[in-house]
Amino acid sequence: MKKDPRVVFGRCVVYGLAWTVLAFLVLPMIIVVPVSFTDQYYLSLPKEGLSLQHYAAFFEKEIWLAATLDSVIVATCSTVAALVLGTLCAIGCWRLASNAAESVRTFMLTPIIVPTIVQALAMYRFWIDLGIMDTYFGLILAHTLIAIPYVVITVSASLANFDVRLEQASRNLGASTSQTIRWVILPSIVPGMLSGALFAFTISFDEIVVALFITSRNVYTLPKRIWDGIQDHLDPTIASIATMLIVITLALLLTELWARQRRRARLTERIEGGEA
Amino acid sequence: MHASLRRVYWWLIAPAVLLMLVFYIYPLIQVLWISVTDPVPGLGNYSELIDRALIHRIWMTTIRVCVITTVITVVCGYIVAYTMAQVGERQRTWMMFCVLLTFWLSVLIRAFAWVMLLRTQGLINTGLQELGLIDQPLRLVRNEFGVIVGMVHFMLPLAVLPIYSNMTGIQDRLVSAARGLGASPWVAFKDVYLPLSKPGLIAATILVFVFSLGFFITPALLGGGKVVMISEYIQVSFEETLRWGQATMLASTLLFSVFLSLALVARFVDLKKVFGAR
Question: Which CATH superfamily is domain A63-238 in?
Fold first, then answer.
């Protein structure tokens, strides 16, 4: 069939626009990379040569390393907590499959919808009453609450593809509830749990609004340091941190894409093998 | 299922629900409660919504910025998603890659990149000055332009993903059929494709609008105190004046607006689908 020139022209315009939008998305992040290697003492593109001074500043200054450590501690603990609680909740709701369970699952999504500033204010007030202001426990608790909905969503999604009959078979063969969960359900929802964990970790590692409200000196996470750095004098160290975070995000994303492609390849192999 | 077995499953749900009720819902209710009891019981705090010009202005700014952001984001997101649904596998993977990279990268880092580019001595201004295109630096940040640029950048992946996932379910044969029956490319798109992609479009609009309303980080950093939206004002009125009554009143109003927007659209679309819970 001969292509209508109007269609071809329209298509070129739309595709061009789409790539322009994508350039708008990606370019600002890419430009950070050369800036991080600047030889100047302020944020700019390298003038006379490349320099690693802003990376050195990150690894030599106590405040940046301490902040990174705080962030890793808080993110790890809240990821584990959110993963356990969220997964159990998703399994329970899925297996009960009643209207009440469905409402519970909807209810668990509340933290996604409530504006961050509102929850920060609410937690501030209550955390004072509890006496857990500016403690690791307080921030971990807050981040766990914020992250649970994402685990519930991702685990529920992978449970939706899980065949209920497998679970019944396991029970008929005499397995207890905990054995069934451990040996039958958990292995098949591992991908959902992994992406839930990744969500939880990223959210905690990046969270700033609640941290600004409920922590002060004792717990000082990386986002808080970055926030200070942007507001004070645009510390160029942030450009080096940004570059490192971009590289980490890129690596994780590539791994994920690679794993997905391998899964798909294995699936096609199996299907074709079955047909042959 | 046996009653005893059902009880076991309720026990699995209980810890998460209890945690949420005690440490999340109760504090929220406390905020609502303070807003009508501090400093004196009654709706005194809420009368400021009507009386005070400053609060009017902040709400107007918030709604204006949110509406503009939503429109730009959804239109751009639709173009990207549509192209992704049309092109070949290779190109699609690359496009998806760009979207996901942005989606996963730290919000703070993205706002930082924009401040670095847009400020008075930023890369764009110095670049243009060195090229001799401008004498005076352009004002790109600390105004609504800067805030909207940053917000669109943050929201775009949130628009592309639902629109695209809806589009993958649309059969291209329908558009071909319309073309075969004599519709022009534009008419075939407008009367066949667009209506079919409406669920994704609506989902994206809701997500972007609701998240914009309560957005704090990007407006605070790129607005530089000049463009104050409701979230930032809540923080300021709480930190600087310590007026709990006012801060909680504004927070409650923000919470209500979010739930009101969701309730309005819940009549047209399945919200659980929008948030990926189903």
Answer: MetI-like (1.10.3720.10)
Indicate left, alpha or beta for B238 from its phi (over 0: left) and psi (-120 to 50: alpha): alpha
The answer, for A247 touching chain B at a CB cutoff of 8 Å, is: no
Q: Tell me if the domain spanning B46-274 has CATH number 2.130.10.10.
A: no
| Residue the block writes with tokens 């107007």 | B60
> What are the extents of the domains in chain A?
63-238
- For A49-87, how does the pLDDT look when each residue is reduced to its tens digit (9 = 90+)? 888 888 988 998 888 999 999 999 999 999 999 999 999
Q: Are A188 and A162 in contact (CB under 8 A)?
A: yes
Residue B81 near residue B163, CB atoms below 8 Å = yes
Which residues numbered 90-119 in A keep a CB inside 8 Å of some CB on B?
Answer: 91-93, 95-96, 101, 104-119
Q: Do B105 and A115 touch (CB under 8 A)?
A: no
Tell me which chain A residues have a C-beta less than 8 angstroms from the C-beta of B275.
Answer: 109, 112-113, 153
Q: Do A35 and B123 touch (CB under 8 A)?
A: yes
Q: Which two tokens stand for residue A112?
A: 């996604």
For residue A273, the distance in angstroms to the closest alpha carbon of chain B comes to 24
Q: Which residue has the higher pLDDT, A39 or A244?
A: A244
Is there a contact between B197 and B84 (Cβ–Cβ < 8 Å)? Answer: no
Q: Which of B29, B74, B104, B194 best probes binding to A when mutated, by most A CB atoms within 10 angstroms?
A: B104
Residue A171 is encoded by which pair of tokens? 């029970």
Mention every residue, 6+ apart, whose C-beta is less than 8 A from residue A235: A229
Q: ipTM score of the complex?
A: 0.89
Chain B contact for A13 (CB, 8 A cutoff): no
- Give per-residue pLDDT as tens, B235-275: 888 888 778 888 999 999 999 999 998 888 777 777 666 66
DSSP state letters, B163-190: HHHHHTTS-HHHHHHHHHTT--HHHHII
B8–A177 C-beta distance less than 8 A: yes
- CA B114 to CA A207: how far, in whole Å? 19
Of B6, B98, B217, the CB nearest to A25: B98
Domain ranges of chain B: 1-37, 46-274
Q: In which band, very low, low, confident or very high, does the pLDDT at A268 lie, cut at 50, 70 and 90? A: confident
- A208/A230 Cα distance (integer angstroms): 13
Residue B268's Cβ-count burial label (10 Å; 0-12, 13-18, 19+) is exposed
Mean pLDDT to the nearest integer, B82-102? 92
